[in-house]
């Protein structure tokens, strides 16, 4: 297996792990992202190259930093907030999934804005503050 194939295999492994952690099926992910279930499978198996646009879409859906899918990033190296949502319903209807995905995206954006405005992550790692233009 060449280096390129190994990279896509590792990205796929990480995509699958994030999907399973989110408690979603390939079919649910495919519907939410507007792609065929087979494409999700190809990405997870590393048999199809994935572009940055799709990596960003998966990251938003799963509530994680897109760098977490990159092989050069050590697992656990990037601190991602625990933004998972709790559901009290016994079953989530298929029609609820787009709303849940959008809520997850909004929650991620709120977290990132908070980090930028406060100048540090909750763990205490400093983040450069944006400069105010006068």
What would you say this structure looks like, in words?
The protein is mainly α. It has a single domain (3-118), classed as 434 Repressor (Amino-terminal Domain), CATH 1.10.260. It is 52% helix and 0% strand. It is built from five helices and no strands. It has helices spanning 3-22, 26-33, 37-45, 52-62, 97-118. The protein is flat.
Poorly predicted regions:
123-134
- Specify Rg, calculated over alpha carbons: 16 Å
> What fold name goes in the CATH topology slot?
434 Repressor (Amino-terminal Domain)
Please give the count of helices.
5
Give the averaged pLDDT, no decimals. Answer: 76
Q: What is the beta-strand fraction?
A: under 5%
What is the top-level CATH class? Mainly Alpha
Q: CATH homologous superfamily, by name? A: lambda repressor-like DNA-binding domains
* Rough outline: flat
What's the quick description here?
The protein is mainly alpha-helical. The chain has helices at residues 3-22, 26-33, 37-45, 52-62, 97-118. The radius of gyration is 16 Å and the shape is flat.
